[in-house]
Amino acid sequence: MVRKIRRSVCPYDCPDACGLLVEVINGKAVKVSGDPEHPFTRGTLCVKMNRYQETVHSPLRLTQPLLRTGTKGSGEFRPIPWEEAMERIIERWQKIIDQHGSEAILPYSYAGTMGLIQRNAGHPFFYRLGASRLDRTICSPAKEVGWKVVMGETPAPHPDEVAESDLVILWGINAVATNIHFLHGVKKAKQKGAAIWLIDTYQNITSSVVDQTYIVRPGSDGSLALGLMHLLVRDNLIDRDFLESHVQGFEELKEKILPDFTPEKVSSLAGLPKETLESIARTYGTAINPFIRVGSGLSRYGNGAMTIRTIVCLPALVGAYWKKGGGCFTSTNTARAFAMNEVLREDFMAKKTRIINMNRLGWTLNELKGPPIQSLYVYHSNPASVTPDQNQVLKGLSREDLFTVVHERFMTDTARYADIVLPSTSSLEHSDLYRSYGTYCIQRAKAVIPPVGESKSNWEVFCLLAERMGFDKPFFHQTADDLINHLLSIPSPMREGIDQKAFAMGKAVEIPLPSDARTHFKTPSGKIEILNPRESHPLPCYLPPYEGDYPFRLMTGPSFYALNSSFREREDLLKKEKAMFLQMNPTDAEAKGMKEEDPVIAFNQLGEVSFFLHITPKVPSGVVVAEGVWWLNHCPGPRSVNTLTSQRLTDQGGGSTFYDNTVDVKLYQE
Ligand code: SF4
């Protein structure tokens, strides 16, 4: 028996990017635990990853290429050799290119794996092919815009600094489900006497770890931020020294915008009593170093970028940005740690091709002309489940003339619609390089077990496809490790000062933050730009969310037991979640004559979805909550939650609006 403990990294789309220790016996991962030497995650994992070996060696893993034999969506396939799969793909693509041009081919991927090499492995290939480009904006581009408009390239504070704060506000983030290691610092702050608040649209699992939860109307957070600023100014709870030396546009905000955001008005917009607004503002304004951790969900509204922008302005008024332990954290931006142009290879594009927003896949597959999409290549993404407007996506995927290839570990909803399915490695079976959007850690991970079955990594498959297409660039003749070595040979100021020895050993290391990060703001003016003259709205303001035609606002919150549609292969996690519930306030349920666990249907203009009802006072009246994205074969009806979410985009950034939808609910009747 050969037993080894190897280091790796959690590859999923989560800000924590946990360090893993993998126990390997005879080439099989038998146990996965947290790496105690990881500077941020410190040896603990979430419930999803604690038994990652069961995902890696799941009996549901795809182990051979498959060719469709049944109708699209039926999931009927027969195994074929890799050789044949490659031949079929290339032959079909050549025909499509001859008839329609290469822009008729569309790659579709997002963050099923976060490693820089495997995640981006398709970019060079599809640039060289001349395929349509995908605007990868499904997550939180509006959040990035909101931060950048005010703070430019200023780095967010170190997340552990929250431990120094005397008031922590988790704003629109269900941290217990989505950012659990951030709570390490929050807990420390609490032990030292800090107050911990949650501002959200319903009492989720994170409510249980905070001192106070404030429930706001969905999409109204921007009005709350402006209302608090109104009160801070009225009560002279502002830091004039900081505003004068480091902020641009405070006087304009004070004169032109804030007078309108009286407690009366904000109370009616946000749904909080006036006294509560006064109390929040007083506590925030008198805190020494308040820290706001902003989630992503509140940016997934039609007003998402503006909402984040207004919240980011709030700490500027009280000078929290220059106090250790204070400020605002949206995400870390470590993009410049590595020369990503060496991975993406945009220079392989012979001419600029069209760009397609990934949130509009339904429209793209059904409506787009010039040329219409004839082939979709999906890798580490499951658009049939996770992309908005599911009915339109499935209609598009059902097109007989659409040639769909899916490279996956499991028979997902999308894979069921493929013409060819290629088996993919898990993160333990390939090499990669990781950075995180919730920490300043970077880490290199090598494959710790051989590929399961005949699975291949994204990198390997794109190299094979490049060879078959006759792409002669040496770039496609290297291994993932060669490319990682090349990247690491290119110096970056961001990586200066990291613990090189530990990094070379495969440990997570932290990128040091500039010592003047709290006083030198990386904006064109060098100041925090409350007034940004380059914007169509030079000052932050309130943009209302989507009104909608139905009586309930639908919140599509995260599940504690899954990550988007990932981990749905795990029976143990499915059992814990029990069933696909729609949560509703008791008053609303009573008015509709509904009882606990009744089968119900939520519907709107886009379609309808079956749920079991869970009646709870944790959800305010007028709101319903559906947590998690379920695979269709686990749903009580034929559709999952993204049937109810629209293809509308955010105000800036082209982001998704998953939280900005309305529905009605009726009892299911056979
Ligand atoms: S999903 Fe997030 S919290 Fe869970 S192990 Fe991965 S990085 Fe850590």
Task: Summarize the structure in short.
With 670 residues, the chain is α/β, with parallel strands linked by helices. The protein folds into 4 domains: 3-56, Phosphorylase Kinase, domain 1; 66-137 and 343-497, Rossmann fold (3-Layer(aba) Sandwich), CATH 3.40.50; 141-330, Dimethylsulfoxide Reductase, domain 2; 552-667, Beta Barrel (Barwin-like endoglucanases). Helix content is 28%, strand content 19%.
Description:
- The protein has 670 residues and is of the alpha/beta class.
- It folds into four domains: 3-56, Phosphorylase Kinase, domain 1, CATH 3.30.200; 66-137 and 343-497, Rossmann fold, CATH 3.40.50; 141-330, Dimethylsulfoxide Reductase, domain 2, CATH 3.40.228; 552-667, Barwin-like endoglucanases (Beta Barrel).
- The protein is 28% helix and 19% strand.
- The chain has 22 helices and 27 strands.
- The strands form seven sheets. Strands 5-4-17-16-15-6 form a six-stranded mixed sheet, with helices on one face. It has a six-stranded mixed beta barrel with strand order 22-26-23-25-24-27.
- Strand 24 and strand 25 form a beta hairpin.
- Helix 8 crosses helix 12 and helix 15 crosses helix 17.
- The radius of gyration is 25 Å and the shape is globular.
- The mean pLDDT is 97.
- The chain binds iron/sulfur cluster.
